[in-house]
Design goal:
The protein is 43% helix and 13% strand. The chain is α/β, with parallel strands linked by helices and 356 residues long.
Length: 356
């Protein structure tokens, strides 16, 4: 197969003075400018907090709780919005789902082409719109009402069309957008997100969601692993354990010390009770201190007889915290039962490999 001919050199046009000026301006943002912007946004958010109608917000929250409860029909809380408000609505819906609350996002465009079939008369539809006059949402309202859903508009303008045609309205006070033209929706979307996620946590508390139930909804992430995994789920056991007796010579146990991947020996008595531990660090220190005398030393003479231990029912994250605690970190913990019998070993490497 032949090669392609070389490309002819291309002369790129030189930058004009205006282009150079634009490039220079783009790098002219300093700390003072950023600080002033953050302070302005903080002021706009404080305006929202200071002027939010709490009784109105409470009625909204109680309505969602009632409609989504079994006593209220066990409906689904749907959210919808257009543009940036749509992204916020979708995120709030996913927050509720992660808390075990039935929720979903309904695209206002797709809803008018079949997706509205998911709505039922026991459901709630929350419509996010800064202006309250979004054309796509206004077209959706009569169709959603025909399905019997309870409609709630969440808007930031005092008078708007959505407010008039929904069953309930929540007003999110907006002083102005951070944008110098008061156009780009950067403050309005921030207060929408704060509002929605705060209500979500209120619903979480009202439904008495436990940590175990929350973890069950996050099995693959670090959150779930932290709340689900116990030591017994991640420990090595039986033939995987690096064990020896108190009277064994140190040099006779080098294979056991190095082959099990734990960096230690568990020193046990005849009943499998833990006497102590001997680590590869102990081996180096003993060799440095004793020289050739190490050939005559037993594991029991040099082992740590007061090692940190943990039970099999403890949470895996607790084991990690125990390994990292003062006075000095360790790489493993023997796992014992209530009679000090060794049933396993958990290693820092094993915990990290599991995603903790």
């Amino acid at each position: 197969m032949g090669s392609l001919p070389p490309l002819a050199p291309v002369d790129l046009p030189a930058s004009t003075p205006d282009q150079a000026k634009t490039t220079a301006d783009a790098t002219a943002i300093d700390e003072s400018t950023l600080l002033n912007l953050f302070k302005s946004q903080q002021s706009h958010l404080n305006f929202f907090f200071q002027h939010l109608d709490l009784p109105q917000t409470l009625r909204f929250t109680q309505t969602l709780l009632l409609k989504s409860s079994s006593s209220g029909g066990g409906g689904t809380i749907f959210f919808t919005g257009v543009g940036k408000s749509g992204f916020v609505a979708h995120k709030i819906s996913q927050t509720l789902v992660s808390l075990g609350i039935r929720s979903g996002f309904l695209s206002p465009v797709d809803a008018l082409h079949g997706d509205i079939g998911i709505l039922a008369d026991r459901d709630v539809l929350v419509l996010f719109s800064k202006s309250g006059n979004t054309e796509e949402l206004l077209r959706l309202v009569p169709c959603a009402r025909a399905k019997g859903a309870f409609l709630i508009s969440v808007t930031s303008s005092e008078e708007n069309l959505l407010k008039r045609c929904c069953d309930m309205n929540v007003h999110l006070p907006l002083e102005r957008e951070l944008c110098p033209f008061d156009l780009a929706p950067v403050t309005s979307t921030a207060i929408q997100m704060v509002f929605g996620d705060t209500v979500a946590i209120a619903l979480m508390g009202a439904r008495n969601l436990s940590k175990d139930a929350y973890a069950a909804n996050h099995p693959a992430g670090r959150i779930g692993k932290t709340l689900i995994f116990k030591v017994k789920d991640l420990m090595k056991k039986q033939d995987e354990l690096p064990v020896c007796r108190e009277g064994d010579l140190i040099m006779d146990q080098l294979v056991e010390l190095t082959s099990k991947g734990c960096g230690c020996l568990l020193v046990l008595d005849e009943g499998y009770h833990l006497i102590g531990t001997f680590t590869d660090g102990d081996l180096r220190r003993t060799l440095k201190a004793s020289g050739e005398g190490i050939f005559k030393l037993t594991v029991g003479e040099m082992c740590n007889r007061n090692p940190r231990t943990i039970g099999s029912e403890a949470m895996a994250v607790e084991a990690m915290e125990k390994m990292e605690s003062p006075p000095s970190p360790v790489q493993f913990l023997p796992v014992i039962d209530h009679q000090n019998v060794v049933i396993g070993i958990v290693t820092l490497h094993g915990l990290v490999s599991a995603g903790l």
